[in-house]
Each structure stands twice: as structure tokens, then as C-alpha cells.
Design goal:
Histidine-containing Protein, Chain: A; 4-stranded mixed β-sheet; alpha/beta; 3 domains; 242 residues; 6-stranded mixed β-sheet; 6 helices
Length: 242
């Protein structure tokens, strides 16, 4: 077996053992050239996507991973409908109320909101085949992460490319991940009693402790943590009380 085949086989074996990925139900095409692995296919959720990328990168000899994984949306929607929903989320969400907002579609740019002074940044977004791309700049990692979560919440979204820059740059921190996750859980209408959830973060691994009323909310809280840019893993210790 040549090195190229060996890498592909090792990646496949790791993905096959990860139950969140479920290769039998959601097959992933794995290829590689010169140590760069390409993963392509549909996955059930953001957790499966991030785990697949992490596992592929962990194989000895892999120098990079090309991400062509797409999350299967709860409902299929056109790009225009996705764009309109995201615009509504961004305009209504207090956490990004001081950001200039605009979108690109069909070669034109439309401004949704303009902040002239003391703004928190400028967010520009576009949607192509269900993939949302966020560009521009914001003043903190929390703003960047929150905008990314809003994009993932948008019905019909298959992937989010969060290319927002943070200006001025500063070192990212675990405590900032915890703080923004608390804000996300409070803002998520699908999570009841978010005050009963105690998130923490160490080395960008999030741990969820506390309780939620249902299994569905337990899963939703975990997905909210996975949606955050930079989070490498989520440990879900939430108890279901009903």
C-alpha cells in the first residue's frame, strides 16, 4: 500500500469509528494528494462536520484538509429566502445592533443598516447554494462568533464560512468563548431555562453542565456550542429533568 492509500485508509477508519459521523448513512468521499486530504459529502450536523475535519487532520502525514462537507438542512430553501432570513436575524439581534450590515447578491451590494459613528464593525454576507459567507470586520471575537451562530441558525443553511476579521487583533481566550455561549443560549428561542446551563471552556473545549427540560434542548444546546468558531470539541453533561 502506497502512502497516499494509507492516509486515505486511516482517515476512513477514524471517521467510521466516530458515531456522530455515521459513514454508513452519510457517506463521505475521501481523497488526498501530497498529504492534503479532501472531504466531500453531506453530514447530519455541525458536530459531525467539525469532528470529521479534526479526525482527518490528526492522521500522520496529513498536511492540510480541504473542507467540502455540507450540513443537511432541516428544510430546503433557496438562496434568496436564506439571505432574507439572515438579514432579519442580524437586524433584530441586539448583540450586533451597532454593526453596519450589507449583503451581496447578483453582483450588487445592498446596505441594510449604516452605522456612521462608534460602530462595532461592518458585516457583509452572501449566500451561494446554501453556503453563507460572512466578510468584513468586527471589534471582538464575541461579535464574530455571535454573527456566525446567527448564520447557522438560519433555516436552509448548509455551511457557514466566517471570514470576519477582528480589528484590532487580540489573543483569543477561553473565557470569551464561555461568555458568548451564555449570550447565545439566552438568545436561542429553542433553549428554555438557559440559566440552568453552566458552560465552561478550557483550551477551546466546551463543557456543558446543568440541566434542560428535554432531550431536544440538550441536543440544541450542544449544537449551539459547536456553532462557535474556534471550538474544537463539546462535552455534553447536561441532565434532562423531564
Amino acid at each position: 500500500m502506497n502512502p497516499r492509500q494509507a492516509i486515505t485508509k486511516q482517515v476512513h477508519a477514524l471517521l467510521e469509528r466516530e458515531t456522530r459521523i455515521n459513514l454508513h448513512r452519510f457517506p463521505i468521499d475521501i481523497s488526498n494528494a501530497d498529504g492534503v486530504v479532501r472531504l466531500e459529502g453531506d453530514v447530519p450536523d455541525i458536530a459531525a462536520k467539525k469532528l470529521a475535519l479534526e479526525l482527518a487532520a490528526s492522521v500522520p502525514g496529513v498536511r492540510g484538509v480541504v473542507d467540502r462537507l455540507r450540513v443537511i438542512p432541516g428544510e430546503r430553501r433557496g438562496d434568496g429566502a436564506i439571505r432574507d432570513s439572515l438579514a432579519k436575524f442580524l437586524l433584530q439581534e441586539p448583540e450586533v445592533r451597532n454593526c453596519t450590515l450589507q449583503f451581496r447578491a447578483k453582483g450588487r451590494t445592498e446596505v441594510l443598516r449604516k452605522i456612521e459613528q462608534d460602530g462595532a464593525g461592518e458585516i457583509e454576507f452572501s449566500v451561494t447554494e446554501g453556503v453563507i459567507v460572512l466578510e468584513g470586520h468586527v471589534i471582538s471575537q464575541s461579535h464574530r462568533r455571535f454573527a456566525g451562530v446567527l448564520a447557522w441558525w438560519t433555516p436552509g443553511t448548509r455551511d457557514v464560512v466566517n471570514a470576519l476579521a477582528v480589528i484590532p487583533e487580540y489573543e483569543d481566550r477561553d473565557d470569551e468563548v464561555t461568555e458568548v455561549l451564555c449570550l447565545v443560549l439566552e438568545a436561542d428561542p429553542m433553549v428554555q431555562e438557559p440559566e440552568q446551563i453552566r458552560p465552561s471552556c478550557r483550551n477551546f473545549v466546551v463543557t456543558l453542565e446543568g440541566s434542560v427540560p428535554t432531550d431536544q434542548q440538550r441536543e440544541r444546546a450542544e449544537l449551539d456550542a459547536w456553532y462557535l468558531s474556534g471550538v474544537d470539541r463539546v462535552i455534553n453533561r447536561l441532565a434532562v429533568t423531564r
